[in-house]
Each structure stands twice: as C-alpha cells, then as structure tokens.
Amino acid sequence: MDHIRNRLNGQFSHRRPSRVPGELRGKWVAWDRDQTRIVASGHTFEEAKGAAGAAGESSVLMARVPTRLGRPMLYMVAVYISQ
To answer: How many domains does the chain have?
Structure first.
C-alpha cells in the first residue's frame, strides 16, 4: 500500500485518494484534507485554488491529474487559503 505524506498534519496516511473522474484529466484538482473527495478543479493551479476558496475550503491538497489515468499523481501540494 502506498504511503502518502499528509503535509497538513505531518502524518503518514495509508489511504489512497478517491478515484479521479476521467473528465479531470490534465487539470488541477483540490482535495479535501482527508483526500477522500475533490472539492474543486481548474485548468490552472490558481483557478483550482480560487474555486476551492470560493467553495469555503481553508486548506486543501492540490494535485495535477495526469493526462492518462492509471498513472500515479507524482506530487501533491498543501495549500492554505486565507479567507
């Protein structure tokens, strides 16, 4: 099982993020803190981050979805959104 470093709370997680719908290929997505649901998406990092803030999220994990699903997301970035 993959170990995902959760930078929001400094813990290792043994969970895998939920599946990503095919229509999000190549886009940036913002995951909730538990990495169980996508709260926003966009064509750019800033667009997805702005949409997450507009949805009322204060901290998210940002990731760019590969153009070919089935390939792992290589990194996630923790983002804190000031309201």
So the answer is: 1
* Domain limits for position 60: 4-80
With H, G, I as helix, E, B as strand and everything else as coil, classify residue 49.
Answer: helix
Radius of gyration over every alpha carbon of the chain, rounded to an integer in angstroms? 12
CA 82 to chain centre: 17
Q: Nearest Cα to 63, choosing from 45, 39, 81, 47?
A: 45
- Confirm if 40 and 30 have CB atoms less than 8 A apart: yes
Span 34-54, pLDDT tens digits = 888 899 999 999 999 999 999
Distances (CA, A) of 18 to 37, 62, 82, 83: 6, 14, 26, 27
How confident is the model over 8-21, as pLDDT tens digits?
Answer: 445 544 455 557 88
pTM, full prediction:
0.68
